[in-house]
Amino acid sequence: MTATPRYAEDYLPGQVFNVGSHAFSAAEIIAFSSEWDPHPFHINEEAARQTMFGGLIASGWHTALVMMRMMHQGGFLSLETSIGSPGHEELKWLRPVRPGELLRGQVVVNSVRISKSRPEMGFVNNTATLTNPSGEVVYSLTSNAIIKTRAG
Amino acid sequence: MTATPRYAEDYLPGQVFNVGSHAFSAAEIIAFSSEWDPHPFHINEEAARQTMFGGLIASGWHTALVMMRMMHQGGFLSLETSIGSPGHEELKWLRPVRPGELLRGQVVVNSVRISKSRPEMGFVNNTATLTNPSGEVVYSLTSNAIIKTRAG
């Protein structure tokens, strides 16, 4: 949450938000995936070693949620103005995410468009990424955030 | 989980899997979203009534996870052969999901391709949907599942 609400007009193409960092623990990966996405390589260290991943990796959905939370907590979205999203253009799980890796989150504004038919809302197209300590992007999501305008 | 593992060659274009159903409770929506996606319309019934949604709705990420779990539990994926996914072609949150609505999950196989360079794996392109009691699709995800072949 930001101190002052950020309206659609306040987002600028090219603007970069560094929204925080997160390192998954093995316990966190196992607990989440056991509930939602119980692939052996997400829920059992021993079984994971026998797979092509060679060890435990986070569920891609878990990674997506951590990014979502960073977008809230890291100042990209304001609770007062964010109305959600109709979905994604592109979601990529580019590399396995392993326990202990510190992932840094960044959001870049691609474009901002105020709706002609509904001038109280704008579409902030953005690309959110998580980058590992080797500088590799592990997760990338391009989507439209629907954000209230000052006219809203 | 299926009784017998399903390999890439076992998926057929046009094949339909009815993978189960789920109705979100208000408490479930609030608990999940408070942790991951705290928009007012996901975490507070009173605040949600003041928004354009007119009431509490599930986080789209929560909806996506319920679909993922259905794909595991409903027999579309076999834990022995499923290797995950590189991401999505298309993810759409088409309509708000409200507490108590029974959502039915379905997965349709679009195409199956065995990798030429890595014949031990195949790409099962599929579209997964959740449909509400009015027959409206509320969520749609098109993605490639990476599945082991019998050669794997």
- CATH class categorisation of chain A: Alpha Beta
Looking at the overall shape, the CATH architecture of chain A is Roll
Question: Distance between termini of chain A?
Answer: 19 Å
Outline of chain A, from the CA principal axes? elongated
Give the helix level of chain A as a range of percent. 10-25%
Structural class of chain A, by secondary structure, is alpha+beta
How many beta-strand segments of chain A? 6
How many structural units, i.e. domains of chain A? 1
Q: Can you put this structure into words, describing what you see?
A:
2 copies of one chain form a homodimer. By secondary structure, chain A is of the alpha+beta class. The first copy, chain A, has one domain: Hotdog Thioesterase (Thiol Ester Dehydrase, Chain A). Helices cover 22% and strands 36% of the residues of chain A. The first copy, chain A, is built from 4 helices and 6 strands. In chain A, strands 1, 2, 3, 4, 5 and 6 form a 6-stranded antiparallel beta sheet that branches. Chain A starts with 15 loop residues before the first strand and ends with a strand. The relative contact order of chain A is 0.25. The mean pLDDT of chain A is 95. Chains A and B meet through helix 4, strand 2 and strand 3 of A and helix 4, strand 2 and strand 3 of B.
Write the layout of secondary structure elements.
2 copies of one chain form a homodimer.
Chain A: E1 16-23, H1 26-36, H2 40-43, H3 45-49, H4 60-73, E2 82-84, E3 87-93, E4 102-114, E5 121-131, E6 137-148
Antiparallel strand pairs in A: 1-4, 2-6, 3-6, 4-5, 5-6
